[in-house]
Amino acid sequence: MNNTVKSALIVGVGGQGTLLASKVLGRVVLSEGYDVKVSEVHGMSQRGGSVVTYVRWGEKVYSPVVTDGEADFILSFEKLEAARYASCLKKDGKIITNNRETDPMPVITGACEYPSDVLEKLKANGADVFAFDALSLAAEAGTARAVNIVLLGKFAKETDIPADKWIEAIKACVKPQFIDVNVKAFNLGYGIE
Question: Tell me, which fold does domain 6-190 have in CATH?
Answer without folding.
Answer: Pyruvate-ferredoxin Oxidoreductase; domain 3 (3.40.920)
